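Entry 14. Two folds queued back to back today. First construct below, sequence then structure tokens.
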Amino acid sequence: MELNSKKLETTSSIIKYAIAIILAWFLIMLANRIIDDLDTSTRRPEQKDFENAAIMANLNKDTEKLNIEMANVVTKKSSVENTISTAQQNYNDEKKSFDNWVETRKTLGSPDKDEEVTSRVKKLDELSKIEQDWRTQLNARQAEIDVINKKIFAVQQLITKEQQSAEDKYYVELKSYELKVFLIRLLFVAPILALGIFFFVRYRRHKFAPLFLGFSLFSVYAFFIGLVPYLPHYGGYVRAVVGVILSAGLGYYAIKKIQQFLEEKRAELNISTQERAKNVQIEVAEKALENHFCPSCGKDFLIKNWAIPTKKKENEVYQLVTDFCRYCGLGLFSNCPKCGNKNFSHLPFCACCGEKAAEK
């Protein structure tokens, strides 16, 4: 029993494409895991691998030593600053006390002959001298800090020079690493792409075509999308060249097939209508009747005749059908030999009585 249900055909197409997409999805997941694991086949270089460990250790040791020395001097400087602040505060307090005392002595007696005046002035001078001594020490500590800063700067320059040399070597090795990884992944992906193209060209009409289509979709993704994150700067050229080759190859194949199809159709129109009618398949006949086109030449077989407008019916379109195609002469409609009802000639049964149509 032959099934011609349109719903069944649509459902079948959906299921086929769903199988292809699901298979492609799981293949993509598997390929992504494999490509990620390919990283373990070669170790990615690091900049520290190209640094002179002995030199960097000594420089880092010197830097650490100078930083400790700097911290000690800064601590001493901070202590001197605190001491100066205290000495300055003591001097200010003593000076204020002295000024108050002098004002009092002016009121009560003659201060210029008082020995205590001399004693207080001497004390103020001593406090001022203490402050000045501490400021001298503060300047000495600042000088030590400046010397240590110069030493730290000199060591940092040596470290920068060593790191720059290591960085230059690192980038050279990194390019070599990227080339290795790219070639490994390309050796994995390129055969998949070639196999996917082969499946698409050879087995796209196979009964298991959805499986082959799924693999073909996966192969295109793996090469043009899945490989993108791992392309070095020159990898884009590889992808572009492959894309050009595939576009040209598939374009040539498609154009050749289209030309071949057109030539076959032109040659077919030179055959008698009886022979062409025998070659019309039921699936083609179903689509031809549904979309009202000739199953041989593909031209529309409906004739639109505009009726004369009236008050009751204006601009009504009457669609007329001819028994033969007006472009290639193929028989389209014929009467049933049993009931006389007109049917599409290329379907197997009468739409009115169910009688089996005569052989083409």
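Second construct, same run, same settings:
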Amino acid sequence: MTADATFWDRIADRYAARPVKNMTAYEQTLERTRAYLRDTDTVLELGCGTGTTALRLAGDAGQITATDIAPRMIAIARGKIAAQGADNVAAEVATAHDAPVPARGYDAVLGFNYLHLLPDMEETLARVHAMLRPGGLFISKTVCLGAAPHLRALIWVMQRLGKAPHVRFLDVATLEAAIAAQGFEIVETGDYPARPVSRFVVARKAEARG
């Protein structure tokens, strides 16, 4: 496993036990995501953690494949899926680069609290674009910390001690430019919460021209 996968695997049980920090922002994220999903959609979630969001959205999509790099996260997710009896949700250890892709592409790809944790954000965005059908949606929420020099220094020390994963210090403009650069049209944005900024973005893959 990569260093980041090992980190998330090690903290998976503690992560699963923690309550959602900002339930109002989380519910807003779910509400706006549901507005774009149909009960026939085939959906991929990247960085699913222990599967909570995939299960909350199970009734709003046809099929959801929830993926994460940490095997322990996925083991917990599978237990929750079985307990809930959500037969339209599957959980797999995968990244954007090796996740299964249906022949017609996904209707939607989700990535919540995800992009700022990637060392290869641009490559992942390109891969997400390729996995979507024409007109498909990438729905994400990303922590945007800006420059934050003091926090950057603290996280650097924690990373050296194995107590923090890779973190990218993004601002909203840089994030949205990176998404648009891969061929997406941004159709909705929001901040859930506004402080620290967690930027919600709905981006559509352009329809193929014939």
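Quick look at the second one. The mean pLDDT is 95. The longest strand covers residues 132-143.
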